[in-house]
Description:
4 copies of one chain form a homotetramer.
Chain A lengths: L2 E5 L5 H10 L3 E5 L7 H5 L3 E2 L3 H5 L4 E4 L4 H9 L4 H4 L5 E4 L5 H13 L3 E4 L2 E2 L1 H7 L2 E6 L2 H14 E8 L3 H29 L4 H9 L6 H5 L1 H5 L9 H18 L4 H18 L7 H8 L5 H4 L3
Amino acid sequence: MTAVAFIGLGVMGAPMAQNLVKAGFDVIGHNRSPARTDTLVASGGRRADSVADAVRDADVIVTMLPDSPDVEAVVLGEGGALETARHGALLVDASTVRPETSRAVAAAAEARGVRALDAPVSGGEAGAVEGTLSIMVGGDEEVYESALPVLRAMGSTVVHVGPAGAGQTVKAANQLIVAGTIELVSEALVFLDSHGVDLGAAVSVLAGGLAGNAVLQRKAPAMLARDFTPGFRIDLHHKDLGIVLAAVREAGVALPLGTHVAGLVASLRAQGGGSLDHSALLLQVESLSGRDNELRSRPV
Amino acid sequence: MTAVAFIGLGVMGAPMAQNLVKAGFDVIGHNRSPARTDTLVASGGRRADSVADAVRDADVIVTMLPDSPDVEAVVLGEGGALETARHGALLVDASTVRPETSRAVAAAAEARGVRALDAPVSGGEAGAVEGTLSIMVGGDEEVYESALPVLRAMGSTVVHVGPAGAGQTVKAANQLIVAGTIELVSEALVFLDSHGVDLGAAVSVLAGGLAGNAVLQRKAPAMLARDFTPGFRIDLHHKDLGIVLAAVREAGVALPLGTHVAGLVASLRAQGGGSLDHSALLLQVESLSGRDNELRSRPV
Amino acid sequence: MTAVAFIGLGVMGAPMAQNLVKAGFDVIGHNRSPARTDTLVASGGRRADSVADAVRDADVIVTMLPDSPDVEAVVLGEGGALETARHGALLVDASTVRPETSRAVAAAAEARGVRALDAPVSGGEAGAVEGTLSIMVGGDEEVYESALPVLRAMGSTVVHVGPAGAGQTVKAANQLIVAGTIELVSEALVFLDSHGVDLGAAVSVLAGGLAGNAVLQRKAPAMLARDFTPGFRIDLHHKDLGIVLAAVREAGVALPLGTHVAGLVASLRAQGGGSLDHSALLLQVESLSGRDNELRSRPV
Amino acid sequence: MTAVAFIGLGVMGAPMAQNLVKAGFDVIGHNRSPARTDTLVASGGRRADSVADAVRDADVIVTMLPDSPDVEAVVLGEGGALETARHGALLVDASTVRPETSRAVAAAAEARGVRALDAPVSGGEAGAVEGTLSIMVGGDEEVYESALPVLRAMGSTVVHVGPAGAGQTVKAANQLIVAGTIELVSEALVFLDSHGVDLGAAVSVLAGGLAGNAVLQRKAPAMLARDFTPGFRIDLHHKDLGIVLAAVREAGVALPLGTHVAGLVASLRAQGGGSLDHSALLLQVESLSGRDNELRSRPV
Lengths: 300, 300, 300, 300
């Protein structure tokens, strides 16, 4: 029975770990605030009181952490995963972090005889619960293949996209396109509304052509109903676009629209929209257009 | 047998008129350069030597013209369609023009006892040939319903989106989203390529999630193969975005990303890309990022 | 004694006409709302009840009108200035309009034997009153020279910048740089304030180096005092930037920052800031940054 | 006689150190590549072989280093200035670095009993040679006053702008306005040229009004002469705008035009313009507008 250490049992990590239990893995979980391990234990997993205890005997180590500094501390830091991991263990970092963090993790892992992959996910809490996440994997091809049983227990679309860091780069590109598309759809809706168009009919015809996209299909109904319950919070999307901007600058490429939309997300957050769903970019377009909406009346 | 006058037998108009013939309408076509009427006649339609001759006995008049001034001349001008049309005739303008042009046509038509719709299409030459266009219709509900037999002979998705001008507004929103999405996908591809990612694998995983869109599905393969044969030319998209900018300014709304992408399309055109497919926005992102590509070596 | 017809006695036109009286010209003024001619008459000018009456015996015709359609009506329209003007008269259009309007006026004037210049001004109401306007003149060199006595009665900086329309183009460029500079200074102030910098000290050091500009010198004190009394209203700057955008599109050039700032001005106007001084772009930067300010609490 | 340690004798640092010698200070210089200390010694200064040797007996320590990591290494690092500096010494960091680096230096200095100021400069090599730099100073008021003799030996405009880090913030704002103004002037020039305007005449009239700025006065003549010899290189301006972007993101403010121009500078650099003067933004506007210029034909 393959032993899996799972570090980071948050909104995403907890159901991902439970899906590993369901798939027959021996899962030992650790979380900074220990209460979060209870549901894992109730589902048949085990609890570890420290990162070291969790990873000591693990065949596979999965990390699902908030940001680059967390991964650096938990994986690379003193008492971290790499210090204790068995020679030959497999480290799967499912966190969304900077590509260069993933490359640093891969290099440090190799130096310790640990095989590492970056494997950020998309699909949200629902995808984590249902095991239908998309997983973008960077690292060596053969390591990727050896990790497939673990990855397929958590996601339904699992794709190897390149060397170490490539998973993070694709995740960054994903977040860039998603933010840009939400903004484009928001601008289109405000424009259509200002001309007295039937928005429901417009969305249905737009969704069927070359303008069609997943935001129109999945997000527009809630946007028209003015429901901005997250879903995926502006705060998190802002953090992810920070990764994009840093990686863009590092690569020396010019992404005019991507940079622009990152600024719009930052502005929405500065105006107090951080805890709303990212589709609340609609509120900002309304505000910029002088149209009454919740954003302008919302306390900051 | 319903008599249909069809004015404007270009790349789009000619196959649309032929589909009306196939559907059993008595079609009499007119085009400024008369050679373009030959294929219609060969398919069983008739030829008229002037707009007046075409519309005199028509139950329905369909216009498919390049731009707002053409519609103003052919419909509203001296010797134009409204001067000669029968009382009670139905005017369907399938051209992509400014919403205010469509509203002016609707008002002038009403004054002459003619019922008018704006009905711009999307789906390109292939959609026109196969009769699978999306048609966005503005005008009175009952006029729309009376026009359905004609509209359904030309398109497979026919949606009534609001009052006069609303069809044009939805078409404008469509062109805004399409240009913005091509730009976002182009920026993502350059970004991914700069980080050494496998582009084919990345496109497949991006297409399956919230970043998924019709550009990734239909356009990205040709973009990766560096095939920029139109399709839909930058020159035409530039013209359509001019309609968007004018309608945005008229409505007093703020569309930051839409305005930005209109500038990028204008710049690509200024650099000599006007006759390329609109997916050639990729070349401009490459040029801005200092990456070798056809645009930089192309004579302007 | 040179007879000058002056059409358009608004906030700018009235003092300009009075300065012509002071300089010894025989000025006959006309304004759509006749009450505006009273101060001219009190200063020693004469009143005309129609454009035709004003221009019939004039050696020089000066027009100072709000926008392109006004110039087209008053100069080119039925009963307009060109219909009545004497052969050999000199037409000086001081309005800020589209370069192509000025070129159309120049062509129509030439056909009637009238010599025409476009001569838009900058310097505001104060400059108009004090006769210290900057005047940017387009048209033939020798016509320009013959107009110098009239132009120098109204402005202290009078420059010939090129053929017909060139004056308007330079005025458009002026408005582009002014709006962009106000926005840059506003962004710098919000940035500095967010980091706890002494704004007065910062402005003084910034004004002395390569970042120095007339906005820092003349506008920043009122901005820091939060006084947005016009001066030059956002509504007017928005109109002028519309001229810039049209001329940019006509010329097929790419002005990324200029286009961007035009969108920001349009947005400020949409949010209800149209009657504030253009330095109120500061309020919009504050709003976008989530900082309390008058704009967010202002009724729209 | 006040002993001044000067670390970093580059293009800016060397003449600044010589001006301190001229003003009567006992200057002991250190530079990573020791050959750079020769001119200082020839001018009457002394040479130190290490940072520690330079600062050991110094009353004042001036650092003039390329970027934040250099300051962190030389000041905060092992064997760095703070390790060896006398209790009560004054540290003046004239480097352009991130405000948070300056705040970290100030905190570390205080912990060691050293008084610290951030004092970045503007005015370029000419200003450094002539002692006419503008110096923007952050730190305690009384420390600032005690540093004035040293600062006034290097610059002619010396302003205290706020607490630790404020000098860097003002320098960042300076670089933001400078880049934005160069871009606005470049866009205006391309626009004017496309309409056939006399550029020299236009620049003279624009420089005299509210559009007037130091770029029009000092840079436009070389731009019109197409001389892009640095001056201040795009590579350095790109680095400085990176500081701006990081500080903007840290402060949670929205600077739409500033962010946009940072992207344009990054793009010019990506296209191979890094070693040109920053006024070469003109070449990029020309390239975006499809106008022939050196940038398009320049090997990247």
